[in-house]
Design brief:
The structure holds 2 protein chains of 2 kinds. Chain A is about 50% helix and about 15% strand. By secondary structure, chain A is α+β, with helices and mostly antiparallel strands. The longest helix of chain B is centred in the last third of the chain and has 16 residues. Classes of the chains: A alpha+beta, B alpha/beta.
Chain lengths: ~800, ~220
């Protein structure tokens, strides 16, 4: 019997080429999208579950006080870890983790060669046991047994040393420490937030030995005893604050334990972690939602097309029933047919998904390999998809069509089918409403991106290269580099800074009164007298920072933005000029000038307080040169820059960054969201159109006789085209009415994430509505015209 | 007796009025009869055949088939009954387009859960008998009308029904093809199959042993 079903179903599939093509195309696209996204989600969810202690490892996070808006931070004082280990018996092991130089790129020197490195960490030696390091050379016990040891990953070893043996080789970091390689470990799993390429002992540095409760720069991981209640440990840990920190110094109030496997996806609201491998559960959820939507639209297509085709199929069902088939047998026949169709679609969709991986990467920036597509959960998922899609897509046609009476054979049962028509129309409305929502969403997202890109930052990031000089051996080297750069033709101005905007500034606070305990947190950045010129800041009161300061001048000259001035309650910027500013820089800090507010962070955040300062003896060093250039030939200019750099700082790696690219990077995830949603929407709309095309074909077929009669009576081709298109347009309009408020609500919510956002314009809705109408019209009119120009003699001929 | 219709009424409501499709039909059919139902278009021939074939219901009256009362039966049992005893032949043949000649003939056996080997034998016999062995792998669209109707008859016969209902079986055929089909019916009838056909043609009606005339849903007792 089943063989017979398959045979009949297969021949039906072959007999209705157009329907088969439309269905398989739609379903295959839907399946392809789902497989890729399921693989992606599967990979994201697999993060950090592979360590033998994964279940018991937690990252300690802390909640800050009101001064810092109660933000949650992933970094904390280096005293937290040791205190927890000592005072809380449930804590079995602990390691602190900090990126060398607080996350700045490190400059390495091996022999005569210079390298840059972004994955250099300091940690306690317990890290090797906690995270299952597998040593290829050396052992985890011996790794830090000698002072000044460093261990490196296999791939880093290859990068730095090639085929040569790395053990006992020396690496000079930032022209400061010389470390000896004491071990090489197998690269950590890709799906781990642990992204260190090289680790050296935190106890070799003041960072490990000088334990204090102030500077919050250290990530802290704890491994609890098995089966310990983490909430209990959190409570005990939070009690340590009162025990060790006096009231004044308590800028954090609570500790949280975040399970290791959750760090990857659930850290979007947590500030200041070091890992570069963070995902976002919101992205995952929205991708999942979108892919299911695309698949659902494809299923609806199938339902619509299959039932639309029922007129043609009715005869076959009638005959089978007369020949003795019962309803269940017909039901099975339809399910078998759907099953085969879905199977073909899945095979095609699966095959295409392998080819589409590079595309996926370029759209979303996420890398997937073939192995991710072949993972067991994916294969199980595909089987499940097959079953579910067959059941869902097959249900409506099977149930509605298996009930057809054999009387159709004798023209007795005129299937009015008002119910099935209603369902079909409802499904079309759903598809189009979804499409319209997507069109509106895409338009607003793209608008917002354009808004952000074109918004005036308050400084000009274009045409500036930031060159790292933090590993310079002497200050003289930096000074002479500045001198020789300023002499070059293509260089407009050079400014030495602690950090380029929004990167490694120092967190300080500005106080209204010297005796205040709470103030405005600001970013402070040491610089020189050229900063206004180089960044093209706008001075609105007072002067720029002085280019030269006389020997023995102990004044700290500062340049603050409007935000600071208004916090300090000065009525005008002019009023602030020349006043003492209370901050952690001592009592000799003066406001030299005030600049217009500028966005050093992304537009998602409000502009914060910012302070540039210049002083003879400053607590921070000069780490970066901002070079404003006017060269058209970038590669030549950079070559020239590098040459000058190497001549002046022969022992330091040349590490540079374009400031405008750094700014663009702030919106990278939104850019990706935009392109992802655009692609998905395109696919969803395309699939919906496939369905509409089929439906139009069906309607034309169904009304063949009516059209024939009308033509005989003198109707024109345009008249008939209009007649046939009208019904579909009505559905699109209903869809629009449903979609517009939903889209408005959704996008309003999305925009709330941005501190600076575009308005939602009425024309976006008009545009989306017109686009949907146009798309529907083009799709439908093809069939309508075809029906309208057909010869009426053919359609009116009786059997 | 094969079947018996007593005072059958069937109507539809149209514009608030009752339109009678069948009105007070009484009919007794013995096994082995060959009955022709005649009458103009719209006289109720097809409706009567559909009622007898249990494809369609009726509002009033009694219908007994092989001693069982069809009018009080549930849908499921009714379809079981006609599956078992009745074969249908249609004016438009109604072959399944996607199946070959062989598969079309085989289909009723599949629905009766006949074993594969037995099916093969039965279908082979039937093909042999209708001289269609050479055409068994062709699809309906590759056959002439007469040949299609032959397949239709073969398919109706394969499950060994007691009764064959034929609604204008030669309506779409030319006179030579018609004659072949009617000759075939006559042979089948002589082998013991009961046949009821609806027809416009006096010539075809003459093949039968008894003619029933219908007019406006009533038996026309001329």
């Amino acid at each position: 019997m089943i063989r017979n079903y398959i045979k009949i179903a297969w021949r039906n599939i072959l007999a209705n080429k157009l329907f088969t093509l439309l269905n398989i195309a739609g379903l295959a696209i839907g399946v392809c999208v789902c497989i890729i996204l399921f693989s992606f989600v599967n990979k994201e969810l697999s993060y950090d579950k592979m360590y033998s202690n994964s279940e018991n490892i937690y990252r300690v996070n802390m909640e800050t006080s009101e001064d810092y808006d109660f933000e949650t931070w992933a970094t904390m004082p280096n005293a937290v870890g040791p205190a927890m280990l000592k005072d809380i018996p449930q804590v079995k092991k602990m390691t602190r983790l900090i990126k060398d130089d607080f996350g700045a790129t490190a400059s390495l020197k091996i022999g005569e060669k210079n390298f840059t490195e972004n994955g250099l960490y300091l940690a306690d030696s317990t890290i090797f046991e906690m995270f299952d390091f597998k040593f290829i050379s050396g052992t985890h016990e011996s790794a830090f047994s000698k002072p000044k040891s460093i261990v490196i990953s296999k791939s880093t070893k290859v990068r730095l040393f090639g085929e040569q043996d790395a053990m006992n080789q020396f690496i000079t970091v930032n022209n400061r420490d010389t470390l000896q390689v004491a071990g090489v470990y197998a690269d950590l799993p890709k799906n781990s937030v642990m992204d260190f390429n090289m680790v050296y002992n935190i106890m070799d540095s003041w960072m490990g030995t000088n334990v204090y409760w102030s500077n919050a720069s250290y990530e802290t991981y704890v491994q609890l005893q098995p089966n310990v209640n983490s909430a209990e440990v959190e409570k005990q840990a939070s009690k340590l604050i009162d025990k060790y920190v006096d009231k004044e110094g308590q800028y954090f109030t609570k500790f949280f334990l975040q399970p290791l496997p959750k760090i990857h996806l659930y850290s979007a609201d947590i500030r200041e972690g070091y890992s570069t491998k963070l995902g976002n559960i919101t992205t995952i959820k929205s991708l999942l939602f979108l892919s299911l939507l695309v698949l659902l639209i494809a299923c609806i297509n199938y339902m619509n097309l299959a039932t639309a085709n029922s007129q043609k199929r009715a005869k076959g069902i009638g005959i089978n029933k007369v020949l003795g088939a019962n309803r269940n047998q017909m039901l099975s026949l339809f399910y078998v047919e759907t099953g085969i169709m879905v199977f073909l679609s899945i095979i095609i969709g699966y095959a295409v998904s392998f080819l589409a991986l590079p595309l996926f990467k370029s759209i979303t920036g996420n890398e997937l390999g073939y192995s991710d597509l072949l993972a067991t959960p994916i294969l199980v998922g595909i089987l499940l998809t097959w079953g579910v899609v067959t059941l869902v897509a097959g249900s409506y046609p099977a149930i509605s069509m298996s009930g057809i009476s054999p009387l159709v054979l004798v023209n007795k049962s005129k299937k009015k089918g008002s119910a099935s028509e209603f369902v079909r129309k409802g499904l079309v409305v759903f598809q189009f409403a979804a499409s319209i929502i997507l069109i509106i969403a895409v338009t607003i997202i793209l608008q917002q991106m354009a808004f952000i890109k074109n918004k005036n930052l308050g400084y000009d990031p274009n045409g500036i290269i930031a060159v790292s000089v933090k590993s310079a051996e002497t200050e003289q080297q930096v000074a002479s580099l500045i001198k020789s750069l300023e002499r070059q033709v293509n260089v407009e101005s050079v400014s030495a800074v602690q950090a380029m905007p929004g990167t490694n500034e120092s967190g300080r606070s500005v106080y209204k009164l010297a005796t205040d305990n709470t103030g405005l947190p600001i970013a402070s950045c040491r610089t020189d007298g050229n900063i206004v010129n180089t960044l093209k800041l706008k001075v609105i009161a007072g002067n720029e920072l002085p280019v030269t300061i006389a020997e023995g001048d102990s004044i700290i000259y500062t340049l603050v933005n409007e935000k600071v001035v208004s916090y300090l309650n000065y009525k005008t910027p002019e009023e602030a000029v020349g006043k003492i500013i209370h901050t952690e820089l001592g009592s000799r800090a003066l406001i030299t000038g005030v600049v217009e507010n500028f966005n050093f962070n992304s537009f998602k955040e409000d502009i914060g307080g910012y302070m540039y300062y210049k002083a003879i003896s400053a607590p921070e060093g000069i780490r970066t040169l901002l070079v404003r250039y006017n060269s058209q030939n970038l590669s030549q200019f950079i070559g020239q820059l590098q040459q000058t750099f190497n001549e002046t700082l022969p022992n330091t790696a040349f590490d540079y960054q374009f400031v405008d690219r750094h700014v663009a990077q702030l919106y990278a995830s939104e850019e990706k969201t935009a392109s992802t949603v655009t692609i998905f929407s395109g696919l969803a709309i395309f699939i919906a159109c496939l369905g509409l095309f089929g439906l139009a074909a069906f309607t034309a077929e169904q009304r063949k006789k009516e059209i024939g009669v009308r033509k005989v009576l003198g109707a024109t081709v345009t008249g008939i085209t209009r007649l046939l298109s009208k019904d579909f347009l009505k559905l699109v309009l209903i869809a629009f009415v449903v979609a517009a408020p939903v889209a408005y609500w959704l996008m309003q919510k999305w925009l709330l994430d941005f501190a600076y956002r575009t308005e939602i314009n009425w024309w976006v809705f008009v545009f989306a509505g017109l686009a949907a109408v146009l798309i529907a019209l083009i799709t439908v009119s093809f069939q309508a015209i075809k029906a309208a120009i057909a010869n009426p003699v053919k359609s009116l001929r009786t059997e | 007796m094969l079947l018996e219709l007593n005072n059958i009424f069937k109507w539809v409501n149209q514009g608030g009025k009752r339109i009678y499709l069948l009105s007070d039909i009484n009919l007794k059919v013995e096994e082995g009869e060959f009955i022709s139902i005649m009458g103009p278009s719209g006289s109720g021939k097809s409706t009567l055949l559909n009622v007898i074939g249990m494809l369609d219901g009726f509002q009033e009256g009694e219908y007994n088939f092989l001693g069982e009362s069809v009018h009080s039966m549930k849908e499921k049992n009714r379809s079981k009954l006609y599956k078992e005893y009745i074969g249908f032949v249609f004016q438009a043949y109604h072959l399944i387009d996607e199946l070959t000649v062989y598969e079309n003939i085989e289909t009723p056996l599949l629905y009766k859960n006949v074993k594969s080997s037995e099916r093969k034998a039965l279908v082979a016999d039937m093909l042999d008998r209708f001289n269609m062995v050479g055409k068994k792998d062709l699809f309906p669209s590759q056959l002439s009308g007469g040949q299609q109707q032959l397949v239709g008859v073969a398919r109706a016969l394969i499950a060994k029904p007691k009764l064959i209902l034929a609604d204008e079986p030669t309506g779409n055929l030319n006179s030579k093809q018609s004659e072949e089909i009617m000759q075939l019916f006559k042979e089948l009838n002589q082998e013991g199959v009961t046949i009821i056909q609806a027809t416009h043609s006096e010539t075809n009606a003459a093949y039968g042993s008894r003619v029933i005339h219908l007019l406006d849903g009533r038996r026309d007792q001329q």
